[in-house]
């Protein structure tokens, strides 16, 4: 999910850190003790992401009661994050194996760098767009329920298909400019990237705006409108009784709890992804370079948020919690039942006739 990048200069040419101490006589980077905490964090986060997102996907697929528009969007978020977590594990396996062997060939380095670059940016953009779609779905469901009835599952599938196409196509085209610095196993923009024509920088700013800035603006405006609408509902008494009924208050409290959870997760994701957005802005402005190791470390919060996002959302749903408990207990119940059957069944005896 977060392979580090520099801009048009390889890591050795940056001035943030002295890189000479990290190399042996073969000019190939050794795995140092300072790498172990970073590797451990990424490994733990990747495994957690695989477990959490796999559980979310399994529960939603196996329970028709959870097949709603809101949950389909959560399912889309979980699938994207699962792919990202799985490829994070694969990336570290490749790095460790390459470090212990003779390294990577030129062709392998280019293919791996472009492939993982595509996966990284695919996950980030898909998460942002899905979070924006979730906020809009909640807005129409709470503020404009009549419009929400026209949001069918078929239309949602078309939207998800469109989202996957653009989130894969865009990063795939961008990854063509990436190369791997094989002595450190980091990707950076190719040497001619600093000589990009002005129109490419403009296209980059447009892509950054459409894929990240505009969705976050939409999310902010939508949640503000939902909060204002919820406060107005709390002030308006029921027309029949002259006061808010108990059922209406409970429904409003449940909705408010969900909205608070969505806002908290969105804010955390926004704060986590902010350093990466600043990094992209620096690339398009061509003002400075960011050290690969530094960017590699500041990407950990984004990876962590993506790993647990869907599970946090879905744990707020009592139906999901009970379904997850049944799914987790089922293998253990099968083992217990199988063991009891073996104990209860009498041993087989054979009779012989003279």
Automatic annotation (TrEMBL):
The keyword Cell membrane applies. PROSITE patterns: G_PROTEIN_RECEP_F1_1, G_PROTEIN_RECEP_F1_2. One of its GO terms (molecular function) is G protein-coupled receptor activity. It comes from the Eukaryota. Keywords: Cell membrane, G-protein coupled receptor, Membrane, Receptor, Transducer, Transmembrane, Transmembrane helix. The keyword Transmembrane applies. Belongs to the G-protein coupled receptor 1 family. This is Neuromedin-U receptor 2-like.
